Amino acid sequence: MLNKEDYLSYLRGKKSNVYVLGKKAEDVTEDPVLKPAISIINKCLDLASDPKYSNIMLETSHLTGKKVNRFSHLTMSKEDLVKRLEHVAFLQTKTGSCTMRCAGTNALNALYSITYDMDKKLGTDYHDKFVKYVKHVQDDDLIVGCGMMDVKGVRPLRPHQQPDLDFHLRIVEERSDGVIVRGCKAHQTVSAISHEYLIVPCKVLGENEKEYAIAFAIDVNTEGIIHIQQHNFQDSRHVVAEQGSIDFGNINYGSSFACTSLMIFDDVFVPNEKIFMHGEYQYTYPLIRRFSAHARLAEGGCRPRMIDLLIGAGQALSEYSGLDKESHIKDKLTQLSFLSQSIRGPALAAAYQGSTTPSGIYIPDFLLCSTSKLQAIHANYEANKLINDVAGGFINSMPSEKDYKNPALHDFMEKYLARVPGVPAENIIRIFRFIESISMSPVVGALHYGGGTLEAQNVTIRGETNFQEYKKWALSLAGITPEIP
Amino acid sequence: MLNKEDYLSYLRGKKSNVYVLGKKAEDVTEDPVLKPAISIINKCLDLASDPKYSNIMLETSHLTGKKVNRFSHLTMSKEDLVKRLEHVAFLQTKTGSCTMRCAGTNALNALYSITYDMDKKLGTDYHDKFVKYVKHVQDDDLIVGCGMMDVKGVRPLRPHQQPDLDFHLRIVEERSDGVIVRGCKAHQTVSAISHEYLIVPCKVLGENEKEYAIAFAIDVNTEGIIHIQQHNFQDSRHVVAEQGSIDFGNINYGSSFACTSLMIFDDVFVPNEKIFMHGEYQYTYPLIRRFSAHARLAEGGCRPRMIDLLIGAGQALSEYSGLDKESHIKDKLTQLSFLSQSIRGPALAAAYQGSTTPSGIYIPDFLLCSTSKLQAIHANYEANKLINDVAGGFINSMPSEKDYKNPALHDFMEKYLARVPGVPAENIIRIFRFIESISMSPVVGALHYGGGTLEAQNVTIRGETNFQEYKKWALSLAGITPEIP
Amino acid sequence: MLNKEDYLSYLRGKKSNVYVLGKKAEDVTEDPVLKPAISIINKCLDLASDPKYSNIMLETSHLTGKKVNRFSHLTMSKEDLVKRLEHVAFLQTKTGSCTMRCAGTNALNALYSITYDMDKKLGTDYHDKFVKYVKHVQDDDLIVGCGMMDVKGVRPLRPHQQPDLDFHLRIVEERSDGVIVRGCKAHQTVSAISHEYLIVPCKVLGENEKEYAIAFAIDVNTEGIIHIQQHNFQDSRHVVAEQGSIDFGNINYGSSFACTSLMIFDDVFVPNEKIFMHGEYQYTYPLIRRFSAHARLAEGGCRPRMIDLLIGAGQALSEYSGLDKESHIKDKLTQLSFLSQSIRGPALAAAYQGSTTPSGIYIPDFLLCSTSKLQAIHANYEANKLINDVAGGFINSMPSEKDYKNPALHDFMEKYLARVPGVPAENIIRIFRFIESISMSPVVGALHYGGGTLEAQNVTIRGETNFQEYKKWALSLAGITPEIP
Amino acid sequence: MLNKEDYLSYLRGKKSNVYVLGKKAEDVTEDPVLKPAISIINKCLDLASDPKYSNIMLETSHLTGKKVNRFSHLTMSKEDLVKRLEHVAFLQTKTGSCTMRCAGTNALNALYSITYDMDKKLGTDYHDKFVKYVKHVQDDDLIVGCGMMDVKGVRPLRPHQQPDLDFHLRIVEERSDGVIVRGCKAHQTVSAISHEYLIVPCKVLGENEKEYAIAFAIDVNTEGIIHIQQHNFQDSRHVVAEQGSIDFGNINYGSSFACTSLMIFDDVFVPNEKIFMHGEYQYTYPLIRRFSAHARLAEGGCRPRMIDLLIGAGQALSEYSGLDKESHIKDKLTQLSFLSQSIRGPALAAAYQGSTTPSGIYIPDFLLCSTSKLQAIHANYEANKLINDVAGGFINSMPSEKDYKNPALHDFMEKYLARVPGVPAENIIRIFRFIESISMSPVVGALHYGGGTLEAQNVTIRGETNFQEYKKWALSLAGITPEIP
User: Fold this and answer.
1) In percent, how much of chain A has pLDDT > 70?
2) CB pairs under 8 A between C and D
3) How far apart are CA C363 and CA C353, in angstroms?
4) Which residues does residue B215 pair with via DSSP β-bridges, in sequence order?
5) Tens of pLDDT along A211-260?
6) Which among A234, A400, A413 has CB closest to D231?
7) Residues A120-167: pLDDT tens digits?
8) What is the domain-level CATH number for residue D336?
9) What is the 3-state secondary structure (H, E, C) of B122-180?
10) Crossing angle of helices C425-439/D467-477, nearest 10°?
11) Is B473 inside any structural domain?
């Protein structure tokens, strides 16, 4: 299976098409903005090769019978889906970060099941091609991402009504051996440092939008693809501080969104063998639905653990400050735990109450996983309020590690940042930096990823609620029969 | 199995020890305050005898191999526990009410498992006695309640420190053939209209509180027991209006708390064969924990459906008012559905992620079911806000059915309460009464039942959260090792 | 000025057109449903005649120079408006109830200013007529209500599009000496027990809806008017229990909504001298706006004090239970105080930052008083959650006073409901009943009164927010000038 | 009065004792971390010298009769205090930032009134000295900050019990001409770039803590004082991007916390004439109370406008995206406006309902301004949730200005980030950066400044609530008299 060295040498060997802060990153492995993200991928590879964690990190492929990385595994059972949730939660405790590979897993599952349905109904050969592709991914242990979100232009307009028809990625030329696509996928979490990418539509499409109904796999280094890195506040920290430094907070990984790209497709050729949907617009709805269900479920794994890490840091800081017996501190840490479990609960329920698609892929209950995700959004802001109150002002105004290490300042900081005797000031600085790295970071607002906005959850919950059935119950109890005489 | 007629004749034959509004209820089946509650019990008996519902209402006893009422069934597996949640949810849709029997079920499960543990450890014979008792309950299909909550006197004092030692029910005399107990159990949901009652301690007890560590079963008509009915706002409606009338809202059942009693034990004899704990104070903690886990889980079944009934009524009223396409109405109904699922999700998860006690009883995950219950408390008030805004002022100011039926007023009310053409004013009155029966009723504040107050959930969540483990994760990511040098 | 005896003899002398529970109330002063409401009016009359309270209860009329009841006073200055808020707050502490007369005050102020504007612009003579009317009200110290809310039929339709044109009150016949009106005003808080009523439109009207643009005063006993009383849960308590009994909770007044009526106008004649708007549809917007601003402000007076009463009761109960030092109890009482002040603050600000209309009437800032009202709605449900958690289960399941007074039960209840030594059980029962009378009563959902629903506040806040101005500030700071090149 | 040039030359002439990122900042005016903060000070100086704004920016000193900067003005009336609130709100719209000078204003007012009280009671001469000092500040138009917050060490311990007695700033040596102080003030918003600083205690002190009861003024460049700059996420942006660049978001000021320092007093001499409290521990309570009241009030000025800026940016972005008619967008912007007003309302009320201290200083109502501040904390997180949902993913993943200006990328970004035709992509980038600069910045968690944490407000609200009075009202209504028989 893929190991750290192979991965780094792959990255170094890539023809660069990644831009960071206005410049092409000649060697992504040396770029300060990309390094933390690469470290996260590497950590996950390390864990996968550690026999101690093989139960959680690996799974037996139903396609090949071989052990494969769980990120590339297809969820063929309730147990698989519950395990996936635990996998995501586990990795959060080991990295304190988004591990960036969930979208790929979601897409592998969604496309496997949709290509099956298409072939059965339409007599196409997508599923066979896709099975072959998945085997390749599993066997070569590739890092696979997924690009769904288009830039979308004028929001209320359909793709074919947009002032620029490329606001949603589309086929601009049909060839005998493939297609040429053009467009731009936004917020691409892993594209700059992965092997392969699955591209799928982000909207339910109509008959007159067939050129948008395209799904395919592609090498992220393909001619015509450009990755422009995000530039958020945490990235700037990565430029200013060294990885491994106290100022990273989460000292090795720093940030969960170190690697989001604007991914441009400037007339890119896709060969037929990597195309898995080609005009079948009527399958965009189930594709997006199944992808989203997986995506929202996964958030129910990592988000609670992110809050648990805040609890852990809050507990440590309270002990260091002599506040761990204070009732309002204990209350707030308890409320944080409630918030964590209130996300985890519906996600677990969604995994247990999922359903099996014709292909055998087992997908989460959509209402419950959207409930989990919506609760994650609400809980995120509430959690930050609580931890900020537990921690106090140094989450904003801690001096830098360079100050701490400056001999002219070191003793002062050691003296004045100390609290409970015996705890070095450095511990206190570290804890504040760690809390900053989560609660003050771009993660604060990054709840749009992994299953969409608050409003997207509302739309799903509305769609999945059986209002008419509930009405029947109420009318019957109220003695209204028939409904209208 | 027990049928409606048997049950009513049992109630009529009981020696009355039930007081309602200051008077002894000579025939409880004719008492306007108790009638709605009896109707709920009867509805559940009807459903249990309907083959269409046998799958949800009945289960095979692992003790006798016979089909028994699910309320008397012991949960020996994950499936049993999930089924129990569905059972509770189903009954809510059929009655719009608390079915009053959960506490009994909780106690049967908790005592079965605790007596097993005690016997194994202490060599007592409680479990055998209890198995015999359960078989009797199952075979004769008895209505069994449970009295846990003592009146508790001065809250921060231990039972043995109270100004009145009877503030917690206790043994006041030991006899060779049994014990005499004295005390008072509050908020007893079904005691006035059940067959049997299980009495258990409500506090974790210490060595010097052995006389409080008593668990037993008792016939609710036993000499020395008095049931004084609650008198809440909905009860008054039951006095003023006829069951089956529009003003009941939920026309047959009216209220979920029609039958809560203050249950007084004025030196009551309990024979040895019905005693299942007698001084083993060290088992009060697991007993209360297992009982509470079951109780909180059950709320995760009924509460979401109570909100779903509000959604159904809100949907109906919106259609009757021409408002069902209005965005703020749709949003509010959707938010209600989110609230419902946010309670149901952690409860389902608690059922799936439970654990098996040595006796074989499968109990819910305590952290997750307490999360569900706490979310239920929060959601309850939020749900009322939303439905009150959807419904508008007539939830408070609807005239009575007697007005509507008065010929001098009928045509005016028909004319002016009408909305969308074709919908009779009566439908609109009924829907308002139905929403009133839930959102304006004592149920609004009844979240203390079925697993305790908001604060009780906080205490559990604090106790069940592994703060030190979370701390370890955070410290490791922040580079703090060892914790203190 | 009006005293209690005059008022009672006026009520007894009225030709009855009030229906309660399906029957005509021959003497409203003896009707158990109406009695608590009448007691509230009487309490306010008592306070007004008590020299100790003349500063808050009375004010000098700018029309007559005489002292008048503050309910009939026109707010001609900032001080008047702040005083009005204090007046409403003060009465809440004395009655624990809605005093039912605010809508009248709101309408007096709104009509005074609008008739002035109409006369200036249109040359009509409404204002002179209205000044004469106000002097009559002030001099004879009349109880005046206001009927704004029509039944409204199909919600999204305009009055003239409704399936029944009478869904909004309208002129059905023009006569030389007046008009005949038909319609129905809903949720009329004081109509059954007042002297006079001001009727105004409840919707902003268009040119083709002139017959709806009618404002007038009328004697509530006029031929053709019928008042059908609401029937809510608290009313039933009033039927079952005696006023002055413990079960009333708030022993004299019991409920703030004892007296809401459906008020039917079955072709009622209104003489010209009592008509203050007659077709001037373009003045419906400012009329409703000014009325609503006053109405929402008034809620900022009574609602906080309602929460303060819950705090006071919670404090008492905590002391009686030995819980007043418990941190979570203190926290919850503190949170209640925050909620109270968070309503009061914006209301006070609205009073201080009001503006003067051409007539001299000083009206509150509409954005701030709508903010207060919306916060009142949110806070109401949150407050109930908190107090229910502070109080515990007996807010639902307290036996009746009749049980407590039954010799067979009295000693048991005295013994078992006691808590801290020296506090009689009766105190504890009283406190629970008092908390029930607010937190479990129809008041819980009555936030639609006094300025409209949650959604109504949203609509105002949207309308009163200067989005374009805010945008300009943001664009300027972001360096976007001009906005679009 | 002070102008920009004078101020810059003062800063350049300062002997540097400011450390940034581990190095001494030789010229603070050229330091990228400090520059945005200096620009804010300058902007305020520009506004003060602009006749158009003299009404809001200047006020007549009651000490000198001359026009002075409002930051140095003492609030001697209700009007002064309301004006101060408007001043703070106005500056937020002009800078989008904390203007850093409020703490100084708060301290000037608090010390003026406390020194007056001390002199009256104790016969000291602090007030005369302080009046002289204030005149100097006003006449020379000095930038004055205030250091209150000590580092505090072990939280539950008193200053004199701490493992290090210097955890709270204290006198370490008494001299005939002054004192030597040692300690460390944390989170000092303007110390690195101001003229003068007022140092006051941060805890209510006891008789055995007289050496901590010290208040004085000091030149920020005094020997022995060191300022170590914070290093938060936004500072890193300031290192990476140029001021004035798009990436600053708020292009000139970037951040409201650019200049917070850890301010170390390494045995600093304070001459007698600048000492305004010296051992009078019993005045620490009113000093802190009056300071805090002012501080919390000021937040009621800037925080609402910060939300209004988010509304403005959200409105712009919605228009650029074609979403400004979407109901859920309009709802969220309206909710933001409600949040803004719900902070502003209680602050305004606190200003209007303040009280006058013996010295003539008019101070805000403490309960209402603490309510405003607590609501500000709650609203902050809620506001970020709403704006993040309105804005979408690019608040996290927008590429940098350098990417946008790279010719290889520019056209792609122009094409794909565009939305509504005619709006350049640059506008959209700018709006996202602006929203990022507020909602994703350290401001998110900086609610501890300006009046303390959430818990600090709770403590005040508890202390200022008259629980016993509220109890009396409730008992009287419930018929409980006397309270205990």
Assistant:
1) 98
2) 223
3) 9
4) B277
5) 999 999 999 999 999 999 999 888 888 888 988 899 999 999 986 666 89
6) A400
7) 999 999 999 999 999 999 999 999 999 999 999 999 999 999 999 999
8) 1.20.140.10
9) HCCCHHHHHHHHHHHHHHHCCCEEEECCECCCCCCCCHHHCCCHHHCCEEEEEECCEEE
10) 90
11) no
Same domain, A69 and A200: yes
Q: Which chain B residue is nearest to residue D331, measuring alpha carbons?
A: B328
Question: Which residues in D have their CB inside 8 Å of a CB on B?
Answer: 327-328, 331
Q: Mutate which of D323, D325, D326, D327 to disrupt the B interface (most B C-beta within 10 Å)?
A: D327
Domain end call among C285, C304, C319: C285
With a cut of 80, say whether residue A447 has pLDDT above it. no
Residue D474 lies in a domain: no
Q: Is C5 exposed, middle or buried (0-12, 13-18, 19+ CB in 10 A)?
A: exposed
Of A96, A423, A457, the CB nearest to B477: A96
Q: Same domain, yes or no, for D383 and D235?
A: no
Interface A-C, measured as beta-carbon pairs within 8 A, has a size of 6
User: For D263-285, what is each residue's pLDDT tens digit?
Assistant: 999 999 999 999 999 999 999 99
- Look at D328 and B328 and tell me if their CB atoms are within 8 Å: no
pLDDT at A484 over 70: no
CA distance D119 to D108: 16
Chain A residues with beta carbon closer than 8 angstroms to that of B309: 470, 473-474, 477
Would you tell me how many other CB atoms lie within 10 Å of the CB of residue A163? 13
Which chain A residues are closer than 8 Å to D389 by Cβ? 377, 448, 453-455
Q: Considering only alpha carbons, which residue of chain A is nearest residue B335? A: A458
Is residue D481 domain-resident?
no
Same domain, D245 and D348: no
Summary mean pLDDT of chain A: 94
Task: For residues D297 and D270, state if they share a domain.
Answer: no
pTM of the model: 0.96
| CATH number for position A103 | 2.40.110.10
| Residue C485 banded pLDDT, cuts 50, 70, 90 | low
Pairing, β B178-188 against β B170-175: antiparallel
pLDDT at B256: 61
Residues of C in CB contact (< 8 Å) with A are 327-328, 331
Q: For residue B476, tell me if it sits in a domain.
A: no
C10 lies in the same domain as C158: yes
Query: Is residue C278 predicted with pLDDT exceeding 70?
Result: yes
Answer yes or no: do A419 and D153 touch at CB < 8 A.
Answer: yes
pLDDT in tens, A295-335: 999 999 999 999 999 999 999 999 999 999 999 999 999 99
Domain span at residue B217 reads 4-285
| Domain-ending residue, one of C242, C268, C285 | C285
Question: How is residue B226 written in tokens?
Answer: 């008095």
Residues of A in contact with B316 (CB under 8 A): 471, 474-475, 480, 483
The confidence band for D446, taking pLDDT boundaries of 50, 70 and 90, is: low
Closest CA to D226 of D258, D264, D183: D264
Q: What is the DSSP string of C338-379?
A: HHHHHHHHHHHHHHHT-EE-TTS-EE--HHHHHHHHHHHHHH
How many Å lie between the alpha carbon of B120 and the closest alpha carbon of chain C?
37
CB-based contact A315 B468, cutoff 8 Å? yes
Rounded to whole angstroms, the Cα distance separating D353 from B85 reads 54
In this structure, the answer to whether residues B249 and B304 fall within a common structural domain is: no
Of D338, D422, D458, the CB nearest to C334: D458
D113 token code pair? 């009134």
Give the confidence band of A168 by pLDDT, cuts at 50, 70, 90.
Answer: very high
Closest CA to C241 of D476, B400, B240, B19: B240
C392 and C405 together in one domain: yes
Per residue in C64-83, pLDDT (tens digit) is 999 999 999 999 999 999 99
C463, pLDDT greater than 90: no
* Percent of chain B clearing pLDDT 70 (strictly above): 98
State whether D328 and B331 contact (CB < 8 Å): yes
Q: Residue for token digits 């050496």?
A: D211
Q: Is residue A187 pLDDT above 70, yes or no?
A: yes
Q: Are C356 and C407 found together in one domain?
A: yes
